[in-house]
Amino acid sequence: MQPSEEKGNAHIHHEKHIEDNIDSSSEASSDFPEGGRTANLVLLGSFLSLLGGLGYMNSIGIYQAWISTHQLHDVHKAKVGWIFGVYNAMSFFCGVQIGPIFDAQGPRWLMIAGTLLFILSFVLQSFCQAYWQFLVVIGFLAGLASSFIFIVPVSCLSHYFNRRRGTATGLAVSGGSIGGIIFPLAFEHLAVRIGYQWAVQAVGLITVVLLVAGCILLRPRLPPTPMNMSTVLPTMTILNSPAIILTAASVFFMEWAFFVGLDYLSSYSLAYGISRGLSYDMTVFLNVGSFFGRWIPGIVADRFGRFNTMIGANVLCVIALLAIWLPADGKVAVVVVFAVAFGFASGSTIGLAPVCIGELCKVENYGRTYAVIYTIASIAALTGVPIAGELIHQCDGKYWGLIVFSGVSYATSVICLVAVRWLQQR
């Protein structure tokens, strides 16, 4: 092998194994099961939990489109957007406390709490009629429920997988994409046949069954630690290195843009005269792309580097937004292509972000680090959708401002990730 070739291979594998240096004071990589009966059952539990909980998050666009044209048809789009902005923010923000509790005590009681909150939110959502009711039930209650399911299953995987963490996490979060395919189709067909109330409750029943399975299957590998102020309180000292700060900034800009496409794609389609059924199905097309985007790049990342793959996924998001959606002008075929392409690219970032975070911290601190970074991202999740709604208003009902905003956000995320890679190579 030539010296230049050896140097190139070393460059590729430098990022892939950087966690071995970061975790040198923790467990050796060989201590992770990387498979086996218990680890695979935990992976299944994570998949089923995210199929239910993250499936709801990935279906949120169809609820926004329905509510905007039915119960809240006379409410300004930006105001309706705050319901879903609050939901997105709560899904991330509450993790700042959930992560440390997971690190100390494991997943069981946290999963049970999230499941009970989802039961309550689905029942109440089916009866909502007024703006404030949707804000409280979807924004705050369902957002709080989602925060448990967003943090715990992914954090649990970090106990069992290190070398194969990208693959395992990708397979688990692909459950959310499947939920994002099944639930919109189920809701769309049921709502026009048996009504909104029963459609919401039917989707809720499926979700709860999946979450109960997750409660049974998820279990920690590390022993619990005593419950005290130092183990369960969040701390911003997690942000103790430029690499972690830049990764947090990257996730912030990703989430600022991600929910805009997810929440407004169906509304965009309706605004451009695409049929109601096909407009709602745009969320399904997006999640079909997202399904493949959540596990294929995970396999690639374990081979060629997690941050390398993450940078590529964000570049694809920029291309999908600015080169496909921006000039689409409501053309059905182009919008469908965008939905699949953006679903694949953005799904890749959702699956890879937890893995990249895992490279920058010890396994026993993973839940806390993951939660703090996504708590910061909750500000983006809160404001992104309402900003997009206001941009529609400022652009006279057109969506080009929203699309440019999303593309620039993803481009900024790319810059942050490139800076992290530069720091890793120093």
TrEMBL record:
Record carries keyword Transmembrane: yes
Annotated PROSITE patterns: MFS
Cellular component per GO, a single term: membrane
Locations listed in the record: Membrane
Predominant location: membrane
Entry keyword set: Membrane, Transmembrane, Transmembrane helix
Transmembrane regions listed in the UniProt entry: 41-62, 82-102, 109-127, 133-154, 166-186, 198-218, 238-258, 278-295, 307-326, 332-357, 369-387, 399-423
Annotated stretches, region: Disordered: 1-32
An example Gene Ontology molecular-function term: transmembrane transporter activity
Keyword field contains Hydrolase: no
Positions of the Major facilitator superfamily (MFS) profile domain: 38-424
Membrane topology reported for the UniProt record: Multi-pass membrane protein
Recorded family membership: Belongs to the major facilitator superfamily. Monocarboxylate porter (TC 2.A.1.13) family.
Cross-referenced PANTHER family: MONOCARBOXYLATE TRANSPORTER (PTHR11360), RIBOFLAVIN TRANSPORTER MCH5 (PTHR11360:SF177)
Name of the molecule in the record: Major facilitator superfamily (MFS) profile domain-containing protein
Organism expressing this protein natively: Aspergillus wentii DTO 134E9
